[in-house]
Amino acid sequence: MRHLIVEEPYSDSALWSRRLALFAMAVILTGLVFARIGLDPTAVLAVLGSAIGLACVAVLCAGAATIVIWRTGRKGVSRLLSGTFIALLVLAYPAYLTYQAIRLPPLHDITTDIDDPPSFSLSHEAFAARKGFAPPAIAPAIRELQLDAYPDVQPIVLDLDADDAYQTVLNTVAALHWTLVESLPPGGRLGLGHVDAIARGFLLGFPNDVTIRIRPLAGQTRIDVRSVSRIGEHDFGANARRILAFTDELKSEADQK
After folding, report:
1. Are 229 and 199 within 8 A, CB to CB?
2. For the ranges 66-70, 125-129, 249-253, the one whose mean pLDDT is highest
């Protein structure tokens, strides 16, 4: 007598978990491509937000599949596990940003001199390079929030004369692959020099504006930096990291003098 073996069907939730997770991954990769080719940031963020939403639904489906498989013995463990893994991969960076948003104050404009921040050039060329963006003034009380959050962001003093320090700043901007917007060597009535540049984020490539002030001292030169994000009210610590990276590279360039 022949016995028919009825094979358990797959859990629908497990199947949908992997499908949604794969779709979320495809959507987020599309969003990254859109960001890199310069699509409007609002549209890019909408695409990325959709991917995050899909990944969250994929995780919920995986949870439902776990319960169904446990209770009914249906197939689909490998699919729910792969769906969960892909979904969590999509959600990893947003989760990191959420942690940074909780841990750090909501700042998007960081400077080495909170009492007298360097000013961005308002020349026609610089204004056009920033696409009409003019970083607004920040209240001193707001700026003081960065003292506790980013104690390492400090003015930079080089044992170089002003002209050598100016050239070192230019070399540093080039080494960091920032786009030079405008540069003015030290001199004039106040003796100050400045460099304006655009630094793009590593992942999305969104533009961030940087201005650098060069102030001659007796036998030394003080460098102050200000980095501002154009998008959003929270930079998740990116501007402070950018200034610290500039500081390290600047000192490295100065040591070669």
Report:
1. no
2. 249-253
Instruction: Please give the Cα distance from 23 to 224 (Å, whole number).
Output: 45
Q: Give the percent of the chain with pLDDT over 90.
A: 62
Contacts of 2 (CB under 8 A, 6+ apart): none
Main-chain phi, psi angles of 76, to 5 degrees:
130, 10
Is-contact 214 166, C-beta < 8 A?
Answer: yes
Give how far the C-alpha of residue 102 lies from the chain's centroid of Cα atoms, to the nearest Å: 16
Which CATH superfamily is 109-255 part of? Kinase associated domain 1, KA1 (3.30.310.80)
Tokens of 59: 């995780």
Report the length, in residues, of the chain: 257
> What are the b/e assignments for 6-35, b being 16+ CB within 10 Å?
eeeebbebbbbbbebbbbbbebbeebbebb
First-residue to last-residue Cα distance in the chain: 92
Residue 184, beta-bridge partner list: 194
What digits encode the pLDDT tens for the residues 108-144? 999 999 999 999 998 888 888 888 888 888 888 888 8
Return d(Cα 143, Cα 145) in angstroms, integer: 5
